[in-house]
Amino acid sequence: MKTPLQTVTTPFHKSAGFSLVEVVLAVGIMALGVVTILGLLPHGLEMSRKTANEMAEARIIEHIVGELQNTNWSILDTYGKKVRYFDDQGLELVSIASSQDRFALSYVARVEIPQPDVRLPTNNASLQPSNHLRRVTIRLVAAPLPDFNFDSPSSGVPVKVHTQLIANMATLANIP
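Given the sequence above, the corresponding structure tokens read:
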């Protein structure tokens, strides 16, 4: 008959480590997970780059439209096709004369303001264009090309065209 002390002190005959099969299975599962995550990494980086570009482009459009919105309305007729330069964050570069400024260049935008052509919806077909609204066309290139030709762009560089309407805020401010 065994005493309770003998039952507790009986040696445990099974080994306490992992078997080779268990280690191979664990390493295989871990390798599958790592390969899956590494496969998703390029897609995530590409999405991050596209999002940063879209945010910078939106910031550029907002900056230009906001500036034109607050500009003296009589100056808009002489604005012409003005080219402006921006860095990778969408902040305007004052000049690109130095090599450091050219290094920071990421976006080139051309702003065009045609003659008044905005007609509001009405039953009167002979209504003249509105004196309080102007169309602004912004052509944007996401490339560091300061001498880019917007009239005949090269086939490898996509040009994004954004059209906005701006209102004469000075006239609207005088409305009671």
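The chain has a mean pLDDT of 83. Try to locate this feature in the token string yourself.
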